[in-house]
Amino acid sequence: MRLPATNQTPDDDGKGREDGALCRRSRRLAHLCAAFAVALPVGVVVSCAAGQVPDLPGLSKTIDLAALVWWQVGIVLAGMLAPVLPVSLALLVARRCFLAVGRGAIFTLETVAALRRIAGLVTLGGIAGLIAPTVVVLGATVLAAPGQRQLAISISSGPLLTLVLGAVVYLIADIMHRAARMAEDHAQIV
Asked: What are the TM regions of this chain, as residue ranges (predicted)?
């Protein structure tokens, strides 16, 4: 289902005005998604380059990147980016979805497909968020002296909430898919 263009005259009930506001909000959200999609991984890389690796549960001390071998730094950086990159990609897909809504394409198969990709990427980010702390700690301590190596398994609410959010978005996408099919069927009848 497509909304009327924003430059059309509003109906007597003001529906055109509401549709125009939805389109404008969607375009603003698209810009925010693009900004966050870039800022998240850049922030992780900059903080790692500055030697600021966040404290991880189970790790007895802060990771000193300067004391690590280059490939250990790579493992730590990859572990820190693993949960962030899928979320950044999901934000880029969300940007395209918001732009489609900004054009008036709400109950379309394009929007539904975008929501499903967002759900998959967010779920992937949640899974990576569960595994990444263990990889970071193992990578940082693998060359430590015997007795100094650490294995930390961390389960926090952040990645679990991300997994739930991915499932919710997928469910919404499934409902919207049914609505899009109904809208197409109704458009063919009329």
From this structure: 32-53, 73-94, 118-145, 151-173
